[in-house]
Structures are given as C-alpha cells and as structure tokens.
Amino acid sequence: MPRAFITGITGQDGRHLAEFLHGKGYDVYGMVKGQNNPRAQAVTDEMPFVELVPGDLADLPSLVAALELSQPDEVYNLGAISFVALSFNQAELTANLTGLGVLRMLEAIRMIGGTHDNPIRFYQASSSEMFGKVRETPQTETTPFHPRSPYGCAKVFGHDIVVNYRESYGLYACSGILFNHEGPRRGIEFVTRKVTNAVARIKLGLQHELVLGNLDAKRDWGYAGDYVKAMWLMLQQDEPDDYVIATGETHSIEELVERAFAEVGIDNWRDYVRQDPKFFRPAEVDLLIGDPSKAREKLGWKPEVGFPELVSMMVQNDLQLEAAKAGIEL
Ligand code: GDR
After folding, report:
1. Of the residues 74, 129, 258, 322, which is catalytic?
2. Which among 153, 203, 243, 283 would be 20 to 30 A from 233, CA to CA?
3. Can you give the residue range of the structural domain that contains 275?
4. Is 92 noted as a catalytic residue in this protein?
5. Cβ < 6 Å from ligand 1: which residues?
6. What is the CATH number of the domain that holds 265?
7. What is the pLDDT of residues 29-70, one digit of tens each?
C-alpha cells in the first residue's frame, strides 16, 4: 500500500485529501500539533482510518520523527496559518509556519531520505494570494508574484524554496498554485462559508444580519473536493512541476452574497447585509482569475463543480446543519 503523510490534516483540504487517498488504497498519516488538540479528535471521529502523528511545522526534529514513523511515499504540506486576515495581526507566526515551515519540511525529507533519487514525493500548497496585486490577467504559472499580505509573502517564500530545492537537490517537489476552493467543510472565518452559514441562519430566523467587509473583491472559486485530486495527480507525473489550479471564472463577493440569498428565496438581500471597516484588509487582493490550461493538458484535470452548484451545495448543507442544531424541521 502506498503511504501518504499530510500536514494540515484537520483543515478542509487535509480532510478531503485524506478521504480521497484512502479511497485510492493509501495508508494515510496526518500530522497534528499541540496537546490534547480538539481538532485531532474531530479527525479521528470522522476518519478513523487516519493515523495521527505528532509534529509541528515550527519544530524540525518533530518533522523528522514524524517522517521516520510514517515512512511516506508522498508528503502533502497543507499545514499553515491559512487565514489572510489573521496574517496581518500575527505576521511573524505566519512567516514561521506558512513560510519557514516549508523549508523545515523539505529539510526533514532530505535528512531522512537523502537527496538525489529521493523516493519521497513532496506537494506544497502554494496559493493564488502570491499574485496579489496582479501583474496580468488571467494568472498562469509564469505570472510574476506581488503578494499583498504577510500570508502571501510567506507563501511566495514557500513556493520559491520548493523550486530551489528541486533545482538544487533533485527532490521530487511540486507546488500547486491553488485558487480559492471552498465547500461545506470550509471554516466559518472564510467569506464563502461565513455567507452561506449566515444565509441559512437568516432563513431559519436564527440571525438577522450579515456583517461583511469589501464586497467588490473578485475571486476564482472552485470546489475543494475537485482540487485535492489535482494535488495527487501532480505527484503521479514523471517529472515534478508547478501548476495553477483554478476554474477560469471570477465572481465578486457581492455576486456570492446575492446568489446565496437567492438559493433560499430571498431577493432583498441588501436589507440583511451591513459593511464594517473591521472586515476590510490593510491591503486587498482585488481580482483573481486563474488559467488552468497547463493542469488540463498535462494532468488531465478539470473542475467538476461550478460556482452556482458550489454556492447551492454550501447553503443547503448549512440549512441542514443549522436546522438540526436548533431542532427545526425543514
Ligand atoms: P482569501 O479568502 O483571503 O481569498 O484566501 P477569504 O474567504 O478570507 O476572503 C475572500 C475575499 O472576501 C473579502 N471579504 C471577506 N473575507 C472574510 N474572510 N470575511 C469577511 O467578512 C469578508 N468581507 C469581504 C476579503 O476581503 C477577500 O477579498 C483564501 C484562503 O483559503 C487562503 O489560505 C488561500 O491561499 C486563498 O484563499 C487561495
């Protein structure tokens, strides 16, 4: 059985990927940090097949030990401070985990597996946030980076160090430049889930307003379940490379809000939405739209779930969840 080691196992992508790899017959190991981490218990409850291994991206010896224990064929580095807004308040922590964490993971792989002809294949979760104040539209693998947050800066370091280790030491290391990807497992702090959850609660009479920041920003939103397949495909190629993973469509936050309210039959959405400066960012990424042609041609990958289906899936899921919590029959 092939063996996969995933950092960030408790996050949206870690859970989708673990499920996907388990379905492909992998033994799945997931790294969890901290003491009595409540999110680790949630992973065990949901996916008892995942073997949890202690470790922390800030602690190189713990990464070496985790790899020695799990002996993986493939390492997926999804662990990070992933919330852009938080990175402005905790910039140093973000640089350490989201940026230097990648370097530590690569070093751990070199230490336990040697350098050239290293059998471990490495996937790095790069991000469209690296494009930031975009230099061209749509964005491709060759678009220059101009990050707009400490998170984006840390991801640029992670991306560049993967390229450097691949070129310097012959590691099989790939970066997936993933554009926003969402779904029912998305954390409530991200705008899609914040909106779909609030819309469900408003529909059920449990909440009366939705407070947001910038409604004009545009994002290329896909479904997380589709995107983890691309991660795996990247590690099955003859040569390691970097790929943009996106839908090629962009929508504003306002469109997202309008569509989510329409899903529950509310047209006068403006009556429920208020803007608050506290949700605006010191520097914003105004427009993202990716060109996934290379992934389509070389990996045979394409997104299956479009924007309307994605919003509908998330609103319907939140309706079920919130109704069940409140004891309301739908
Ligand atoms: P993003 O995701 O920063 O693109 O990064 P997020 O959903 O947080 O923001 C998207 C856009 O929505 C605007 N916005 C708000 N955002 C949040 N979170 N809350 C609000 O109330 C709100 N109002 C407006 C934001 O300003 C922004 O323009 C995500 C993360 O998953 C990263 O880890 C990942 O790398 C990228 O996607 C690709």
Report:
1. 129
2. 153
3. 187-219+250-284+305-326
4. no
5. 82, 84-85, 127-129, 178-180, 189-192, 194, 212-214, 217, 219, 253, 279, 281, 284-285
6. 3.90.25.10
7. 999 999 999 999 999 999 999 999 999 999 999 999 999 999
